[in-house]
Amino acid sequence: MTYIRKITIVLGALCLVAMACVTCAEVFMRYFMRSPIFGAAELTQLLLGILVFSGMFAVTRDRGHVNVSLFEPFLLRHVRRAYRRLFDICTLVGVLAIAVILGWRVWDLTHYPESTVVLRFPMIWIVGVMTLLAGLAVVAAIAAMRDTSRETPPHSPQNFE
Questions:
Q1: From residue 95, how far is each of 25, 41, 88, 102 by CA, in Å?
Q2: Whole-model pTM?
C-alpha cells in the first residue's frame, strides 16, 4: 500500500507542478509577449482532474476526508465505534460510487468517442486515468476499514472541551 501511496502522491505533485508551470508561462506569454498559449486553460483543467483523483488514495487510506464537526463531538463521546464504522462505510460507498460513475463514462466513451474541445485530447484516456485512480481509492477504503489498529488522523479532534 505504501508503494501505491507514493506513486499517487508523486503523480499528484507532478500535476501540481505542471499546472503551476503552465499557468506561469501563460501569464508571461499573455501579458509580456502578447501571445497566449493555445489550450493552456484546458490543459490546466485536465491536470487538475488528475491531481484531485491522485490524492484520493492517500486521503481515503488515512481517513483524512473533510469532517463537519457539528455532531461529531457528541457522536465520538457516546457511540465512538459505531460512528467510526459508519464513517468508513460512507467513505467506501462514496468512492465506490465515483469509481462506478467514471467506469460507466469510460464504457460510454468506448462506444461514442469524444475529445476535448480545444486540444482534441481523447477523453477516454483522461477519464480512464481518473477511473483507475478512483478504483485505487476503493481499495484504500477497504484497507482502511480492515485496519482497526490505525489511529485517527492527526487533524481529528482528540479532546472535546
A1: 35, 27, 11, 11
A2: 0.85
Residue 57's closest CA among 104, 3, 124?
Answer: 3
3-class secondary-structure state, position 71: coil
pLDDT, greater one: 160 or 115:
115
> If we measure between CA atoms, which residue out of 155, 121, 132 comes closest to residue 45?
121
Averaged pLDDT for residues 89-118? 96
In angstroms, the first-to-last Cα distance of the chain is 36
Three-state secondary structure string covering 86-152:
HHHHHHHHHHHHHHHHHHHHHHHHHHCCCECCCCCCEHHHHHHHHHHHHHHHHHHHHHHHHCCCCCC
Residue 102 pLDDT greater than 90, yes or no: yes
Running DSSP on this structure, what letter comes out for residue 33?
S
Dist. CA 106–CA 127, nearest whole Å = 6
C-alpha cell at 115: 475529445
Residue count of the chain, please give it.
161
